[in-house]
Amino acid sequence: MGRIPDFDQGDIQLAFTIDGVKGTVFPNRNSGYVGKNVTCEKGVTAVWNNDLWGVVNVNSNGNTKVTCNVEFQIASNINEAKIGDYVSYTPSQTNFEISKSDTGYEDQIINPSELNLWRIIKKNDDGTIEMISENTSSNAVTLYSQTGYDGYVRILKRLATSYETSGITAGSRYMGYEEEENGKLYENDIKLVQEACNSLKSSSGYYIGSREYSVTDNPGGMEYYYYVRIVDSDGDVTTAPIYNYAYGQFSDLTVSNFLRPIVILKSGITSISGNGSKDNPWKVN
Fold this sequence. Notes:
Elements lengths: L11 E7 L2 E2 L10 E8 L4 E5 L4 E6 L6 E9 L1 E2 L8 E3 L7 E3 L1 H4 L4 E3 L6 E7 L5 E5 L7 E4 H6 L1 H10 L7 E6 L12 H11 L8 E13 L2 E11 L5 E10 L2 E4 L1 E4 L3 E5 L4 E2 L10 E2 L2
Parallel strand pairs: 1-6, 8-22
Antiparallel strand pairs: 1-2, 3-6, 4-5, 7-21, 8-11, 9-10, 11-12, 12-20, 13-19, 14-20, 15-16, 16-17, 17-18
């Protein structure tokens, strides 16, 4: 198992096609092509890695002197993409654990790789591209009481990192949290998503990385209410109570909702295929 560093040595010889036409001079990483598929003789399997510009995950099945054909095609320039375009991107992680110490509830698991259709919400001057998942996670994440409230923004930021992929993304953040000097932190992302997607609505309701509390002076004493901010199933921004203090005692509550992260594509990323439509999104991995 592993990468073949030299194309003309070893037991596996490489042939190639470009847009279906057999080639003679093997392309280099600066040729303007991307590898799509690898097909080998004798049941041998392998995968082409565009970042390493080589064959990886080779399973020779004990065979030698095998020819593998790499299918190349002209790379699409995703820099031509527009705000609102669709991107096919699959995060590398399949299993991410969430500790009870973070949520106050119980140990939980999400599968970042299930989210594989995204929308472009911002193109930056440095060439990076910010995009939000079209759908939400299939598993809800449950938060409990003060622990969930206190760590809310921190938890969501850490969960967002699980949707990154080395060599493809330059970072991530959770929707609704961005470093700003003025204004409410969540409003900028709300505006970006509304303008790019025409709505905040997704496949289900989801968390926003923002929270709030209120204080009421009642005859029976001060009451304190603590909330996390969410987008509900209709696409409206609202809040959900997670705990409160009233009449001399705490009320511990749970909130369960889904995730809708934001990831940032690296500058210079090329697209394997696509035109940005929902039926034919820009494909980056």
